[in-house]
């Protein structure tokens, strides 16, 4: 992935003629203009073709809502925007009604990202980004983004990416990211979600399912500000499903650093299982990472690997991991975890994982499951 070189703000206006052209050409309705007539105050654009999607995406300005009708869209160039919304006039890209929308990158040139936003206050929801030659969806130096109920699947690098300095106050909610694989690097880079090469506070990931990716479920490599992760699952990452004879995928569930950054990320009420390396790992991050009430089960290496930093682990549960429950360094603090003396390991109600990648619940909630639940109010993930 190309590294960010800092935050570059570029803003633009939409002329009256251009606004009308977008609205009419893409089947939309122009709702109004600002007092000075220089830009659209609120434009709703309903698209039903790839050409109209490309046009609406490129021309969006503050207040624009793009509604995408059900179907599969195959752009021939990256969907790209540098436009900013505002807190009161967001730019919204969403499915029309309950329609299933797939934005498919199979027609893109080699090495292309499928969708790329370098702007603030976007809401992107209810869409699938799939089959990109490289990254599926990338937000660079985004402020106040809401990325809700998305799927990023079978892309040629990481499914979903936040990157760049000034990446601040973003919410990634109920993301499914799976099957991503970078053939050119033999699986070394393709994560479910990557928050990499940047900085910025207030970023939160909740309700994610990150599975069957070539590299890691979550990767926070060289992101130098704290990221909060909660109520998320990472499983089956790092397996060579692509019959790559030189496969190099790592296979951590939650990789919480690397590349020299020392930062206090936080992971709460999440679970990692059946990954080919560690369930949760600092990955050389020496910061005061906080892990509370997480579960690691049947990962090939350690459930929790925090051997060099100042992490604090409380009320975590590790069962059936290949090389041990936890590997901790002298500066790591562990309290009320099931590897501590006197802490009992409650039995799981179920170790049958067949329902975990099934349909989500109302509003995009994780599916209800007994898998890895214990009924304990004191230790391990609640799995919800």
UniProtKB/TrEMBL annotation:
Cofactor: Ca(2+)
Predominant localisation class: secreted
Signal sequence, start to end: none
Segments forming domain Pel9A-like right handed beta-helix region: 145-298
Presence of keyword Metal-binding: yes
Subcellular location: Secreted
InterPro entries reported in the protein's UniProt record: PbH1, Pectin_lyas_fold, Pectin_lyase_fold/virulence, Pel9A-like_beta_helix, Polysaccharide_Lyase_9
Keyword Metal-binding: yes
Coiled-coil annotated residue ranges, if any: none
Keywords: Calcium, Lyase, Metal-binding, Secreted, Signal
Annotated region described as Disordered, given as residue ranges: 332-361
Compositional bias segments (type: Basic and acidic residues): 351-360
Pfam families, per the entry: Pel9A-like_beta_helix
Xref: SMART domains: PbH1
Family statement drawn from the similarity comment of this UniProt entry: Belongs to the polysaccharide lyase 9 family.
Name by which UniProt lists this protein: Right-handed parallel beta-helix repeat-containing protein
Organism: Streptomyces neyagawaensis
């Amino acid at each position: 992935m190309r590294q960010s070189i800092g935050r570059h703000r570029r803003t633009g206006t939409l002329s009256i003629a251009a606004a009308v052209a977008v609205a009419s050409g893409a089947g939309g309705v122009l709702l109004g203009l600002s007092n000075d007539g220089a830009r659209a105050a609120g434009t709703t654009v309903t698209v039903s073709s790839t050409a109209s999607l490309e046009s609406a995406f490129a021309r969006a300005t503050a207040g624009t809502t793009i509604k995408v009708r059900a179907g599969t869209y195959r752009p021939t160039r990256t969907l790209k925007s540098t436009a900013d919304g505002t807190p009161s006039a967001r730019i919204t890209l969403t499915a029309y009604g309950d329609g299933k929308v797939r934005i498919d990158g199979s027609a893109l040139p080699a090495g292309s990202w499928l969708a790329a936003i370098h702007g603030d206050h976007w809401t992107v929801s209810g869409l699938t980004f799939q089959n990109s030659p490289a990254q599926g969806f990338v937000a660079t130096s985004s402020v106040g983004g809401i990325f809700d109920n998305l799927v990023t699947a079978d892309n040629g690098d990481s499914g979903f990416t936040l990157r760049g300095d000034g990446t601040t106050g973003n919410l990634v909610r109920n993301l499914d990211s799976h099957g991503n694989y970078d053939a050119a690097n033999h699986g070394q880079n393709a994560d479910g979600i990557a928050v990499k090469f940047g900085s910025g506070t207030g970023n939160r990931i909740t309700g994610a399912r990150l599975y069957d990716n070539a590299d890691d479920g979550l990767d926070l490599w060289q992101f130098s500000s704290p990221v909060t992760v909660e109520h998320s699952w990472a499983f089956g990452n790092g397996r060579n499903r692509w019959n790559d004879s030189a496969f190099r995928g790592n296979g951590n569930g939650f990789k919480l650093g690397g590349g020299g950054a020392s930062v206090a990320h936080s992971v709460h009420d999440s679970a990692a299982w059946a990954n080919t390396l560690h369930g949760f790992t600092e990955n050389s991050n020496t910061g005061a990472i906080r892990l509370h009430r997480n579960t690691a089960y049947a990962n090939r290496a350690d459930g929790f690997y925090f051997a060099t930093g100042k992490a604090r682990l409380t009320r975590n549960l590790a069962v059936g991991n290949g090389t041990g429950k936890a590997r901790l360094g002298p500066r790591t603090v562990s309290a009320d975890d099931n590897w501590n003396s006197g802490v009992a390991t409650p039995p799981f109600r179920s170790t049958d994982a067949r329902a975990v990648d099934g349909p989500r619940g109302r509003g995009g909630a994780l599916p209800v499951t007994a898998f890895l639940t214990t009924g304990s109010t004191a230790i391990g993930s609640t799995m919800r």
